[in-house]
Each structure stands twice: as structure tokens, then as C-alpha cells.
Amino acid sequence: MTQLEPGVVYGENYLTLIQACKDGGYALPAVNVTGTNSANAVMEAAAKNKSDVIIQVSNGGAQFYAGKGLKDGFDAKVLGAISLAQHIHMLAEHYGICVVLHTDHADKKLIPWVEELLAQGQNFYEMTGKPLYTSHMVDLSAEPIDFNLSESARLLEFAAEMEMSIEIELGVTGGEEDGVGSDEIDNDKLYTQPEDCLQAFELLAPIGHFSLAASFGNVHGVYKPGNVKLRPEILKNSQELLEKKHGLDKNPYDLVFHGGSGSEKSKIEEALEYGVFKMNIDTDTQFAFANGVGEYVEANINAFQHQIDPDTGAPTKKQYDPRVWLRKGEEAMIERLDEAFKDLKSAGKTLAIPRESD
After folding, report:
1. How far, in Å, CA of 213 to CA of 295, rounded?
2. Helix (H, G, I), strand (E, B) or coil at 227
3. Residue among 66, 105, 111 nearest 84 (CA)
4. Which residues does the annotation mark as catalytic?
5. Cα 151 to chain center, whole Å?
6. Which terminus of the chain is more solvent-facing, meaning fewer CB atoms within 10 Å of its CB: N or C?
7. CATH fourth-level superfamily of 7-291
């Protein structure tokens, strides 16, 4: 088994990691983060489970990371994304894991955000010899396919110069995430056509590496049972068409599963058979973090209303210290990620070279 230096992976090492996932029949959780607490929880969970992981941030998450007090929203989205990346670059190797750094869901109005991050990434690449991010998502699935693919090709040309990848989406993921998406979607658009995937491959593959979020009924968020009808066989059909047309080995596309929160375990397992190496998870981990904090607050309610406990007369600082209750959120998020690593079969499969202290 090929082993990699722990830290942020990119370029050939990223491709090595993807291939290990596909050959091994497992996928990596791609967890959206909004600050150091959630970012650190993801790295801790990955280290605990001896798995590699994908850390990603949306435009809104990046803005929050920079601080809601910054007046210029665009600058905040750029600065927050840079700050997150630098944080992960500094710490990932010390957790002893391989981390894929990724930005999530940039639709047409957010192309300038991706362009600015690519420009900032070029500066970082020139200084350090490695890209700021492993990949960026270009989500133009709501646009005509010719525009989607031509813009994706333009941005991939820039990214490939820095050993970076992009992720594209064909078909539409239902629901809404950080202002991208809508519940008002025609049902047929939730299912990607294999011919569209083939068109994407033939245009983008000669330029550089791309991953593909092909929709098979995915929906962001968690809904009542029966509302989401996943059809992983669409992924199988897309892979088989490309194999046949270009004489490629099994599962040539590097596929992404969007809207992973709340999905049936059987559908997750089936998707892994068809070349899915990445599954996004956000709603479930947000809820886990909030639930962990909420339970602690409920159990220590006096501390969140009084600096001196009215029942005992004792100071309550040790209970309301943010390090205490934020840690409860981290621990609950880690527990939910334990489940994700198990579901995706990535636990115990890190490619990171063990540290001497391990």
C-alpha cells in the first residue's frame, strides 16, 4: 500500500488517495466546517478513526470563519477561506492524517470567489510549492450544460497549473445550502444523464483532474422518509458508458455523493460500489454539535443565567467557560463522525505514514 506524508494532499498524492478509496471500496467523509472548533473536531475524529478525511467550506462558512463583523462580505469570504486553509496546513500533519482541502458549492454568482481564491492560491503556490486548496467546487448545475462545462474548463486550466483539481456538478442536488440551491426543482433534473457525464469527461479530462458530483436524487438536508428517492444505479450506468466508449478500466469517474446527511445506509453502500470516493456531510454534523452544546446547557442552566449559583452560592465560571461547552459540541460532532467513518468503510485505512509517537 502506498503511504503518504501526513498533512494536506494535492496533485498526484490526491489522485493516489482517490484511487485507494476506489480500489478499497470506501469513501471519505467531506465535512463542512465553519470555524476552528468544527475544523479541529474533524481532524480529531479522523485521527481517532485512523482515516483520512476531506475538510470543506462553503462561501457562507468562510465568511463566518473570518468574522461576521467584517463589513465587506466578499472580502470576508476570501479571507475566511484563506484563514481556514492556513489553519489546516499548520495542524493536519500533527494529527497524523491526510486531509483534502476543498471549497464547496460555488454557483454562477460565486465564480469571482473561486477566481480570487485561485489567484491567492497562486501566490501561496509560488511561495511554498504547494496549492492553498486541493480542489474547488464549480457548481454550475443550474446553468445550461454548455456554459457549465466551458466555465469549468476555463477554471480547471488555471487550477491545473497549481496541481489542483476541481469538482463539478451535473444534474441538480435538491434542497438548499448556504444560499445555493432550491427546493423548487423539476424532478428530472435530480437525475443526471450518463451522456452528460461523458461530455464532461471528453472536455475536461485532457485539461486536468476533476471529480464529478452526478445527481442521483440527492437532496441537501434531512427530510421525512420517502421524500428522497436515491437511484445509485445512475452512477453505474454513467461509469459503464464511459468504460465502453473509451475502453477504460472499471469506474473511471471519480464520483462525489452530495446530500449525504440522512441517507439510507444501503444506498450509501451501493454508491461505494460505483466509484464514489467522497460523501458530503453537513446537516448531521451541525445538529450533533448543537445537540452536544444544548444538552450541556440544559444540564447546567444556572451557570448560563447566573455567575453565582442561586442555589449553592458557588461561582459558575467553570461551567460557562466557552472552552467547556464548545468542547461538548466538538465531542458530539466527533461521535457522529465515528458513525460516518464506519458507514463509508474508511476507518483504519489512512494512507498517512505513522508518526513516531503513534
Report:
1. 36
2. coil
3. 66
4. 104
5. 21
6. N
7. Aldolase class I (3.20.20.70)
Q: How far is CA 295 from the centre of its chain?
A: 27
Partner residues linked to 278 by β-bridges? 28, 256
- Identify residue 57 by its one-letter amino acid code: V
Strand 28-32 to 53-57 pairing: parallel
Q: How do strand 276-281 and strand 7-8 relate by DSSP bridges?
A: unpaired
In the chain, where are the structural domains located?
A: 7-291
Tell me the CA distances in angstroms from 214 to 173, 248, 337, 347, one per residue in order: 9, 19, 24, 25
Would you call 226 exposed, middle or buried from its count of C-beta atoms within 10 A (0-12, 13-18, 19+)?
Answer: exposed
- State the amino acid at position 211 in one-letter form: S
> Cβ–Cβ contacts within 10 Å for residue 11, how many?
16
CA-to-CA dists, residue 170 to 123, 198, 230, 232, angstroms: 31, 11, 15, 14
Task: Please spell the DSSP secondary structure of 236-252, one letter per residue.
Answer: HHHHHHHHHHHTPPS--
| Cβ atoms within 10 Å of 241's Cβ, excluding its own | 17
* Among 88, 72, 1, residue whose Cα is nearest residue 36: 88
Which residue, 110, 113, 92, is CA-closest to 101?
92
Q: Say if CB 283 and CB 31 are below 8 A apart.
A: no
pLDDT at 266: 80
Nearest by Cα to 171 from 265, 258, 253: 258
The CA-to-CA distance between both ends of the chain, in Å, stands at: 19
Given a contact cutoff of 8 angstroms between Cβ atoms, the answer to whether 18 and 277 are in contact is yes
- Listed residue (36, 76, 346, 157) closest to 44, CA to CA: 36
**Which amino acid is it at 121?**
G
Give the number of other Cβ atoms within 10 Å of residue 209's Cβ: 20
